[in-house]
Structure formats: C-alpha cells, structure tokens
Amino acid sequence: MANDDVHGPDNPGRRRFLTATTAVVGAVGVGFAAVPFIKSWNPSARAKVAGGPVTVDISALAEGQQLSGLAWRGSPVYVARRSRAMLATLSEMDSRVADPKSQNTDQQPRYAQNEHRSIKPEILVLIGVCTHLGCAPEFKPEVKPEPFDPDWKGGYFCPCHKSKYDLAGRVLIAQPAPANLAVPPYHFEGDNTIVIGVDPSSSNSAGAA
Description:
single chain; alpha+beta; three-stranded antiparallel β-sheet; 5 helices; 9 strands; about 20% strand; disordered N terminus
C-alpha cells in the first residue's frame, strides 16, 4: 500500500515533483538555446574579415615609417607617415606616373582624389595589393638609386613582377600593374586614430577634397 501511495498515478506529491522538474529542465534548455542566438549579436571574426571597420593608432608612427601587420577585408593595409621632403617628390613624379591627377575614381574615394591621395597630406593609407597579380609591394621610401630604378624617388616596388609606384601609390608609366594602389574608405577619429572601412562624414569629406 505504501508503494502505491508514493508511485501511484494519483499521488499529488509525485505530480508536483515532476512538474517542477520539467519546468527546471525546460528553463535550462531555453537558456542553452539562447546562448548561440545572443552570441550572434556580436560581430564574429568572419564578419570582421568580411569588412568590419579596423581602428589604427598612429601615435607612434614616425616620419618615413609605415605600419605593418594591418588588414581589412582580408587584404593588407599600409599606413605611412610622409615627411615634407617625401611629399615634395610627388610633383616631380607627375611626368613619370600614369595617372598624376588620380582621375580614375575606382582607385580612391573622392576625398583622396588629389596629388597626395589622402585626407591629411602626411598620412597615406593604401591597400597593399599590387594591381597586377595581387602581390604585396614593398615600401622603399628612400630617395636613392635602386637596382630596379637608378633614379628612384621613393615609393613601392612589387618584387613579383617589378611594378613600381610612387610615394602616393601612383603606378609609374609602362608597368605590368595597370592601376594605382587602391585607397580604402577611412576617416580620422582624432589626430592619431584612423578607422579603416568607414568614410568620413559628408562635411569632413567636403572639407578634405
């Protein structure tokens, strides 16, 4: 009789126990099911590679140097600080580059469609992918004779097929590469912070052009 009282189908204590247990298990299940859903609200590494903005601190970037190890949308990004002497070579290079006025709008945003191809003249931001076959050009800022160019004025040299670009990423005439190095969308958040992947506001863009 005692056994029937504990396990019988009409025992109210047993019903309460089962109901409470089912509710607890159900709540735990909902909690675990919600974890991947809530996690999906945060940008994944794959989403960042697909085009999420990248913030870069350039406070330690000295004149004549370039930051390395940056990437946006799976491509390397170059950020260089040019000196006044480096900027002065750009006008000298106009006769040697294929698009001196950066008129091909596919290669840079409107706010970088100028001789220095940048928002701030001294700070250059480029996609580090040669427009020939996708190699990574090397940064060679020194003005000195080079084996690949005895009249080298500084710029980028692609070791794969010897394409040459000046210190604004403009491709020289008669190179394997058909176009300038691309300028990605970017803007400044303060003097030493660049956000790559996001255009400046319309007001800043108009003032920079």
